[in-house]
Amino acid sequence: MTKEKTIAEQQIKKPYGSFEDIEIWPGRPYPLGATWSKKGTNFAVFSEGATRMDLCLYRRETPNVEAYRIQMMEQTDQVWHCYIPNLETGWRYGFRAHGEWNPKEGKLYNPHKLLIDPYTKAIDGTIDWHGAVFPYPITDEDPERYLVQDTQDSAPYITKGVVIDTSYDWEGDEQLERPMHETVIYEMHVKGLTEQHPGVPEELRGTYAGLAHPVIIDYLKKLGITAVELMPVHHFVQDSHLVDKGLRNYWGYNSQSFFAPHADYAASGRAGEQVKEFKDMVKALHKAGLEVILDVVYNHTAEGNHFGPMLGMKGLDNQAYYRLVEDSKEFYMDYTGTGNTVNMVHNRSLQLVMDSLRYWVTEMHVDGFRFDLASALARGLYEVGKLSTFLDTIHQDPIISQVKLIAEPWDVGPGGYQVGAFPVLWSEWNGKYRDSVREFWKGDAAGVADLAFRLTGSSDLYELSGRRPAASINFVTAHDGFTLRDLYSYNEKHNLANGEENNDGESHNSSWNCGVEGPTDDPEIQALRLRMQRNQLATLLFSQGVPMISMGDEYGRTQMGNNNAYCQDNPISWFDWEWDEDQKALHDFTQYLITLRRENPVFHRRRFFSGLKIKDTAISDILWLNPAGHEMTAENWADGNQRSIGMILNGEGMDEYDERGRRIKDDIFLMILNGYWEGVEFNLPGVREFTRWELLVDTHTSAVPAPKEYVADEPFILGPRSLYLFRLKLQPANRTTEGKRKVSIVEQVRKLLEMIQE
């Protein structure tokens, strides 16, 4: 007789006490998950509909051999629990839920399936896509086979939770709390950035330890970014259809656990070492002044729809954890395009997500979150709502409400595009910024009115709701879509390597191949492509809001036209550290732009421009110019063929204060964007005898411009498809012999603006 049967039989008569070499106590319903101490381990798991819950334990040495199966005899507030004295760390575990099998009512209890704990802090093993992993017989050809219960034991083929010690010496580390408006985000992949770096030891490449290596941190620091946004690091699943094709889930948007760091990114081991390694990484990044933002996927899980596997939540309480079709509960509401949607209307699902967020802040010290398909989380019973339970709960939470919260403000359901609709405290990936800026530089006949909103923080989207420019996460490219280099190398997507006959990925990209599809030796086309990349980077970094740079765009990374490289865990997606001269120059140019942004607060204001005179001066904080050097007219704004525009950013007129209440002032800048395919004559504004403009950025050339001054009220030839940044520079002729200004800068700008506005 096995120990499993012995313990199960004995517990019917004696629920608690010693059973051969293991002891069982009632335990507590809180906290959920496996909670270890030196005295033992408490196990607690939620299931409202289960009639019995078994805890299965596996030794570290034999993780696929069940050592004990224990009935959890206590249920408190729908939480099953027990306590095992003296149970050490390193034990693997899972649950088996008994109950009604009635798929048409959404009830999928199947004790033959081992279930991962939704609260496990670490996961060991890899899923073997054996038929036993599915709750129904997958070999059955009946289209309604999902209604039939499969009785194969899934334990040998499934991942398992790990009992771990969560204690850690943070050495005084805390969240950095950098103001959002000062943030420059770098969206990156843990493996992709480090896998090919020659300075990272081979055994650390592709891992959390690799990201924490000094050569990687030094690179990020010198680039000038302030925060890394890590693509999903919650433990995720390698999809069966990708495994069958010999591919891998690279992006990681297929979560199995909301607490456990992805085990494949750990160099140190899978028995809890991955948790410590992640903490070491965060601590190292914080010491370098870099914040850590996680891209989190709470909207769906890897269990898919009614034909998907049974890995955890589906078997523990399908009705509580997932949105089911109201009158056909065997089917799932799919607002995510992945088969299922987490049921944020249910209090236990909401608790799971909130507990996870709080864990990553308090125990893992991350600085914020980017929520994948956040509209799916914000849905009430049917529609997306600002006052949904999820958003309302976050706003009331004293911990989560204080970190960086970034929404991807759309899902695939009806009414799911919610850019501009999230409430105060939230920032959003601004898809309208991406589209407008791409269209302008491509040369689409859309005019410049919408572009002006995007350059100044998208006040049309955020100001009326009480939000500020930092609500706009500005991006031109991201992991999903073309890289910046490919945006100007391809008109069409080239995704054949994904094995879906090029049917996957977005078809409308506002991209332009500059005359040739793909690689070319034509020096003119190569130069144009580099210029277009510089235009986008400069526009991004001089726009109000929070810029997000996609990994590798700073040097011109290519995916050879693949705009949906989610399954390309190979050099197509990885960061290439061997650069040619053009790539080195583009990197240096990006670094220079970030430095200019950081050193000049007028590029990262906390408040929107007013366009009005500030306090006791006659100077407005912003002014828009047409190529004649005069203020833009209503006709200019309405002209869909207008493709050149200038903007004066008046740092002298900033109505902002630092943390000590001191008035913030900056220089006065002139930025000119020329989206024409030909050169344009632009009259530099100002008072000729006093005004000089110093050229700081010229995207028409690959090099950072040497210091050069231009006289105001004289024409300046803009190169085709180029961006220019000037700084107002006072001349010695404007000073007395004692060094005092003959005309103050306020008076100078007053005259400048009066001349422009005449």
Automatic annotation (TrEMBL):
InterPro entries: GH, GH13_cat_dom, GlgX_Isoamylase_N_E_set, Glyco_hydro_13_N, Glyco_hydro_b, Glycogen_debranch_GlgX, Ig-like_fold, Ig_E-set
Keyword Mitochondrion found: no
Molecular-function annotations in GO: amylo-alpha-1,6-glucosidase activity
Start and end residues of each Glycosyl hydrolase family 13 catalytic domain: 183-597
GO biological process, one term: glycogen catabolic process
Positions of the UniProt region annotated as Disordered: 496-518
UniProt superkingdom: Bacteria
Keyword terms: Glycosidase, Hydrolase
A Pfam cross-reference name: CBM_48
Family per record: Belongs to the glycosyl hydrolase 13 family.
Record's protein name: Glycogen debranching protein GlgX
